[in-house]
Amino acid sequence: MSRIGNAPINLPAGVGVEVAGSTITVTGPKGTLARTFPDRVSVAVEDGILRVSRRDDQRQSRALHGLSRALLANMVAGVANGFTRELLMTGVGYRAALQGSTLELQVGFSHPVRVEAPEGITFEVPEPTRILVRGIDKEKVGLVASEIRRIRPPEPYKGKGIRYSDEKIRRKAGKAGVSGR
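^ that's the sequence the OP posted. Answer follows.
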């Protein structure tokens, strides 16, 4: 049995769910998200609780059971609270600035790198070396944060680059111990 798939999802106050066939629409104070789920799973709303069930015990159905429940829980959490991903910049002269909805990065190239905010995503720069990516869709927030990180990933010798706030950089020793003859 799927432990994740069987767990109920409690709906916070102000969050509504509409089930139309295999399309589920979740509406909350932060916005609206809709997603089409496979026919192998069904979603039922009863007394402020969402329950996901599967049609049969085939391998594909069991796999989709837990996945669908996790995606639905993320949709509910997103419209209720939203998601944030924090990026940190390390390096001499590395900084970020916000110009409208465009993020401008100085990361050691001969030119500034500009990143446009996709629909549903907002950027915040509380400090020149901190970037906050915010939105209601967890998948989109993570994707945009990974695209920003990919511009200058952290390198292992000095640790320079753009990294997630909870990411640990494995450092290498470098050329220590080189002796001349």
